[in-house]
Automatic annotation (TrEMBL):
PANTHER family to which the protein is assigned, alphabetical: D-SERINE_D-ALANINE_GLYCINE TRANSPORTER, GABA PERMEASE
TM spans (from-to): 15-32, 38-58, 92-113, 119-138, 150-171, 191-216, 237-259, 271-296, 332-350, 356-380, 400-419, 425-442
Name assigned to this protein: Amino acid permease
Protein's cellular compartments: Cell membrane
Biological-process GO terms, alphabetical: amino acid transport; transmembrane transport
Chief location bin: membrane
Gene3D superfamilies: Amino acid/polyamine transporter I
Keywords, in A-Z order: Amino-acid transport, Cell membrane, Membrane, Transmembrane, Transmembrane helix, Transport
Topology in the lipid bilayer: Multi-pass membrane protein
Domain of life of the native organism: Bacteria
């Protein structure tokens, strides 16, 4: 019986918008308020630095994915170049990353719906989870379509913000907070108003803003023409980062003095309200709602595919590799959704601290995943020079840039250690990795024992 395979139903436009959706999410719409409070206008440079680093990670991932036709995702790459232990830890860590992120997002859906309807927040959260599960169970094309429209809403909102910002700067529009001008970026305490320490402390939230960009790699196995779609999506990442992140932040800081923005509310809501758009709060609430639903949708997709791959590689229970008639890993999708729903309940019990803990743990785990991609690329260059020579999508400036980006990631982790808000999560996260290493050793011993018991010597 031929093994079941995922269906390549994602078109180029889906991959392009998945790439955009992966780089624009709650980290920008919600987290940017906290980041701006920490760094002031210097947050622009933090987004640039992390964005450039993420681009080089994606170029390394793109070259690796296209170097071998059989790769399903970067867990397969990790197994090839770092061994099954690294693949096990990276796969389960990536699953954990998205579970943690999606937990916060599904709770956020409930909170945002309460803006219009006076109902318990768990009701819209559960309804959203059920709708997304139903659509994801049908075909992967449904996931692609959902992300296409979710991402389009985000893009239109940011384009509108940037366009409004440019117009207001040109005409010198006056708001209740003052005149709209580019000089607002540096006239309220300078570009580094909180010094270098504030600038450095903002990196955790900036890293969280970029989580999900590697979804292009997870979707590779279900992309109709990966040789064309993946390079195209990855090469456009720098322009998107420059435009959507840096452009949006410059527009926000030109309309508002950075001192007027607070972590308690979205800077986008504040800005649209300030320029006199009467239904601004409702519009942005809808955008943030779709952004949270989009992140949850991405979480359900990625966690189910990671479980599917782990199961195929005998690193998770075998039933997670089962596909339904639509070629969707339904068992993996159902268990991920179940864990998400339990996590949503837990997040509700500690609403004041849940978001900060989740974003920190998520950022740490994503740094691990990105670091593994860079290390695998170094191993690829060293051990497979013949493949690297034939590559039509070579990652630039390697191996030097790999070491530079790895050093940056290590520095960000050290910064988190010195920050009071991120230190507890950073110190707790190693327990997850210890657990995975123990589980891997137990799983390996069990498989070895099964193989020995199943061995029958040849009869003479």
């Amino acid at each position: 019986m031929a093994p079941q395979e995922l269906k390549r139903d994602l078109e180029n436009r889906h991959v392009q918008l998945i790439a955009i959706g992966g780089t624009i999410g709650t980290g920008l719409f919600l987290g940017s308020g906290k980041a701006i409070q920490l760094a002031g206008p210097s947050i622009i440079f933090a987004y640039l630095i992390v964005g450039i680093a993420v681009f080089f990670v994606m170029r390394a991932l793109g070259e690796l994915l296209l170097s071998k036709a059989g790769y399903q995702s970067f867990t397969d790459i990790a197994e090839d170049y770092l061994g099954p232990r690294a693949a096990f830890v990276t796969g389960w860590t990536y699953w954990f990353c998205w579970i943690m992120t999606a937990m916060a997002d599904i709770i956020a859906v409930g909170v945002y719906v309460q803006y219009w309807f006076d109902i318990p927040q768990w009701v819209p959260a559960v309804i959203c989870l059920i709708i997304l599960l139903g659509l994801n169970l049908l075909t992967v094309k449904n996931f692609g379509e959902l992300e296409f429209w979710f991402a389009l809403i985000k893009v239109v909102t940011i384009l509108a913000l940037i366009a409004i910002g440019v117009i207001l700067v040109v005409i010198g529009f006056k708001t209740d907070a003052g005149t709209v001008a580019l000089s607002n970026i540096w006239t309220h305490g300078g570009v580094f108003p909180n010094g270098i320490s504030g600038f450095l402390l903002s990196f955790q939230m900036v890293v969280f803003a970029f989580v999900g960009v590697e979804l292009v790699g997870v979707s590779a196995a279900e992309t109709a023409n990966p040789e064309k779609s993946i390079p195209s999506a990855i090469n456009k990442i720098p322009l998107r980062i420059l435009f959507f992140y840096v452009g949006a932040i410059i527009a926000l800081l030109s309309i508002n003095a950075w001192t007027e923005l607070t972590p308690a509310e979205s800077p986008f809501v504040k800005t649209f309200s300030l320029v006199g758009i009467p239904i601004a709060a409702g519009i942005i609430n809808f955008v943030v709602l779709t952004s949270a639903a989009s992140a949850c949708n991405s979480g359900m997709f990625s966690t189910s595919r990671i479980l599917y791959n782990l199961s195929r590689n005998e690193q998770a229970p075998a039933h997670f590799a089962k596909l339904n008639k639509n070629h969707v890993p339904s068992n993996a999708l159902l268990i991920s959704t179940l864990v998400l729903s339990v996590g949503a309940l837990l997040s509700k019990l500690i609403p004041e601290t849940a978001f900060g803990i989740v974003t920190t743990i998520s950022a740490i785990c994503f740094i691990w995943v990105w670091g593994v991609i860079l290390i695998c690329h170094l191993r690829y260059k060293k051990t497979k020079p013949e493949l690297q020579a034939k590559s039509k999508f070579k990652a630039p400036l390697t191996p030097f840039i790999n070491y530079v980006v790895l050093a940056l990631f290590a520095a960000i982790l050290i910064i988190m250690l010195f920050a009071e808000e991120t230190r507890p999560a950073l110190l707790l996260t190693p327990l997850w990795f210890i657990l995975l290493f123990v589980l891997y050793s137990m799983n390996r011993r069990k498989r070895e024992k099964t193989n020995i018991q199943g061995f029958k010597p040849m009869e003479r």
